[in-house]
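Might I ask for a little of your time on a matter of protein folding? Here, with my thanks, is the record as I have it:
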Amino acid sequence: MREGKKKISDILIEGIADIILPTIHLLTASGIMKGILAILVAVHILEDTSETYMVLNAIADSAFYFLPVLLAVTSAKKFKASTFTAVTVAGIMLYPTLTAVMEAGQDLHFLGIPMKSVIYHSSVIPIILTVALLHYVEKFFDRVLPEILRNSLTPFFSVLIAALAALLVFGPVGGFIGDGLAAGYGWVYALSPVLAGVILGAAVQPMVIFGFHWSLIIIGMNNLAVNGYDTVLPLIGPGVFAQVGAAMAVFVKSRDKGFRTTCVSASLSALFGVTEPVMFGVNLLLKKPMIAVIVSGAAGGVLAGLSGARAMAFGLPCLVTLPIFLGEGFLMLVAGCALSLVLAFIITYFMKFDPDVMRAEINEMSNKSKEE
């Protein structure tokens, strides 16, 4: 049983290394750009309604918005599917007409079948599952179609089936799960803000892996529009800072100059509110630091829940957006975020693992997979 679990764990890590890691440095750079842009707006050097801001924001945000396209490329390589077909399917998921309707919260129907509104930009899991399916769809049609028809009809059926699977199955399933988690949060917060802080502080970063966190963010935006304040966003903060603390402990433990650089740059991106690089490139990759993130996020969530802090404007919790939480409970919220950072550092530092050895093992598994 232990051996079986180990094999499953190895497969998951190998998948992350092969699919996510090639995008990490680009996402880190984009996260830093987004952070610099947020600082320029915060100190009133740049207005977020200006045309200059619009151009710079497009430059900073493009890699995140079109992340499914980037992952379509790396997933196609991993699953041995057609890169161009995979990218085409990702493009369908981000097609402007569909995106506009879905972001407005309007459900669609395809041949009478309801299609739940899902936000696909910046998502990870739907495109990976879709490309995994694409591999088998392409193999099937390459096998059953006559050679004279294969070059044109295999892409035709592959795009059609994979795109419909993404829009009707993979995306909506994640959306339903996210909505359920968001509804559960509302019930728990009404019962006990502290309990909500513990649960959300622990769960929000794992939710990011699957894209489930978007449902919580939508609730936060709706709360701001209806009530003028929100209680979801403050409870997300400790998890963000926990990612930074864990990665900095890995930085101290590592002796690999290149990996240490990744830890620092990814942590800087997380301080600006973009945690994907630090999670996929460091903490989740090494597994044990992610455990520290979950535990520390829950601990900081206690203080965040006790604080009663509210967001008075929208912004993903990070160092530069802390002013949106100014008011009652602000200092306790900051203390909760600081606690998560420090505790994650301490737990990760004293965990028994060698980040360099683990990375070498992951790279070895990845190379073996490519050879096969």
Notes: The chain has a mean pLDDT of 85. Strands lie at 108-110, 113-115.
